From TrEMBL:
NCBIfam families: lytR_cpsA_psr
Cell envelope-related transcriptional attenuator domain location: 36-176
Recorded superkingdom: Bacteria
Coiled coil: none
The protein's name: LCP family protein
């Protein structure tokens, strides 16, 4: 796919939840919640994972969005559910602009960028190019998108998915901030036009 996208799915089964997340950043990202121990486990499905796409045969997991057209998130949900053996009941579908809006809505995130990151893709718009410097810094939506998309290093998607999980942990921590919680209704209204959900 040309554009990268992000999806988060949440599925309930036997009192547990599974969350599934993003092709667009180059991976499918998920969440597993255990209501008994009240713990959350984050996992990733690499975008090139070969799976059965309902109605389209076997292909890479990220192609589900393209095959499905407007119903791409639903088809991706089915593919992930089949892979995990758990029906996906809910999802949140987020694209580049959605991600930027979310991070900006919570006021950005303080985060340590572990190395210089620079990459230019002629297929992307100029404001989607990646150019970050190593060090602790405040990432707004655009810089956060640059960070979670970067994969031009030795471990490629493996390193990227690890970075994405660490960044999502920082986002969750920021979301638990008292100020963020107070402003949550306003934040949800702000990002609503950019997000597709099934709840």
């Amino acid at each position: 796919m040309g554009r990268e996208r992000a999806i988060e799915h949440i599925a309930a089964r036997r009192g547990r939840e599974i969350g599934r997340g993003s092709r667009a950043f180059g991976y499918d990202h998920g969440r597993f919640d255990d209501p008994v121990s009240k713990t959350v486990h984050l996992f990733s499905i690499l975008r090139d994972t070969y799976v059965e796409i309902p109605g389209h045969g076997k292909n890479r997991i990220n192609t589900a969005l393209a095959f499905g057209g407007k119903e791409g998130p639903e088809l991706a949900s089915q593919a992930v559910g089949d892979l995990l053996g758990i029906p996906i009941q809910y999802y949140v579908f987020v694209e580049f602009e959605s991600f930027i809006q979310l991070i900006d809505a919570i006021g950005g995130v303080d985060f340590y960028v572990e190395k210089d990151m620079k990459y230019t893709d002629t297929a992307d718009k100029s404001h989607y190019q990646i150019d970050l410097k190593e060090g602790m810094q405040h990432l707004d939506g655009n810089k956060a998108l640059q960070y979670v998309r970067f994969r031009k290093d030795a471990l490629s998607d493996y390193a990227r998915t690890e970075r994405q999980r660490e960044f999502l942990k920082a986002v969750v921590k920021k979301m638990q901030n008292v100020t963020t919680l107070v402003n949550l209704p306003q934040i949800l209204n702000q990002i609503a036009p950019y997000v597709q959900t099934k709840f």
